[in-house]
Amino acid sequence: MVYFVDFGVTSIVIPIPLQPYLGELFNLGSIYYVYMAGVAIFSPNSINILAGINGIEVTQSIVIALLLALNDVLYLVTPYPHPATDSHLFSLYFLLPFLGVSFALLHYNWYPARVFVGDTYCYFAGMVFVVVSILGHFSKTLVLLLIPQIFNFVYSVPQLFGLVPCPRHRLPRFNARTGLLEPSVTPWAVDRQPKRPIAWGLKVLDRLRLLRVTLDEQGRFVETTNFTILNLWLVWRGPLKEDRLAVELTGMQVVVGLFGLFVRHGLARVVFKEDNWGITSPGW
Predict the structure, then answer these.
(1) Above 90 in pLDDT, residue 20?
(2) Among candidate residues 121, 133, 147, the one with its CA nearest the CA of residue 59
(3) 161 FRET partner, CA 20 to 30 A, in 4, 93, 170, 216?
């Protein structure tokens, strides 16, 4: 409603190769509001399902907030007064206090945690990103920064939609003997085996090292690792200490996020007329 009253812009810029067919601008109308509602639903929940170890909810949120703030700064330091200056100042007004609160929380939430964030912080963080990106009119940039969360959701679909049994909590399993985290698993009963298409898909994922499948001597499924990026990382890297796992996943979030900003600001001229610095694509 705030967007409708203050902005109401539902047109999108069409990539250069498609402009001969759709024109430079295309009005999505009410579909744009459906898209924004989807972003508003996905962002908080995507933070919430990439969780389960000390510090990971806060660190991923801090990285996304820092990258959004960097995105704002890139618009504020253009060689000319950018028309989106006010929108990105508005974004910073939200992000800077959020970062201050989050860094303070991380001090107590880092391994070994004395404070647990639960759903409250995850939904709060996700909605902060939604508010600044929608009212700042750069929600596509937010999508680029949520690529790890999008992957985690898509990867989780078999369990979230009931194709594979889904326990209430899928966080990594702590091995008390070694003090390390290992991938948690979903057991398969002898009389409740996956249907043939699902079984084939699980074996393909196992062959691609996107899952770990354990079979018995008769080829029946004994257990499969849970479908979260935390468990997948442990499948790739082997058992890790909890803080080490959090550091590595945070590093991955930083690298992917910086690549997302590079795509938004460095490659914009490949598909659009100009980038945010006003540099025009060749041929225009």
Answers:
(1) no
(2) 121
(3) 216
Which residues, other chains included, contact 275 with Cβ-Cβ below 8 Å and sequence gap of 6+?
Answer: 265, 266, 268, 269
- Alpha-carbon distance 25 to 250, whole Å? 37
Is 214 or 139 the better-scoring residue by pLDDT?
214
pLDDT given at position 278: 52
What is the dihedral sign for C-alpha 256, 259, 264, 269? negative
User: In this structure, what token pair is assigned to residue 74?
Assistant: 């890139």
Tell the residue number behind the tokens 């009005």, with chain if given: 27
Output the six-digit token pair for 120: 């409250």
- CA atoms lying within 13 Å on the CB side of residue 217: 0
Cβ distance 28 to 10 under 8 Å?
A: yes
Rounded Cα distance between 87 and 96, Å, is 15
Residue linked to tokens 């442990």 = 234
Q: What is the DSSP code string of 76-107?
A: HTSSS--TTHHHHHHHHHHHHHHHHHHHHHHH
- Token representation of residue 118: 């639960």
Q: Domain coordinates of the chain in residue numbers? A: 2-159+242-271, 163-237
Give the Cα separation of 252 and 259 in Å (integer): 11
DSSP per-residue codes, the chain: -HHHHHT---EEEPPGGGHHHH-SEEE-THHHHHHHHHHHHHHHHHHHHS--STTHHHHHHHHHHHHHHHHHHHHHTSSS--TTHHHHHHHHHHHHHHHHHHHHHHHHHSSSPSS--HHHHHHHHHHHHHHHHHHTT-HHHHHHHTHHHHHHHHHHHHHHTTSS---S--PPEEETTTTEEE--EEE--TTSPPPHHHHHHHHHHHHTTSS-EEE-TTS-EEEEE-SSHHHHHHHHH-SB-HHHHHHHHHHHHHHHHHHHHHHHHHSHHHHSSB-TT-PBPTT-
CA 78 to chain centre: 28
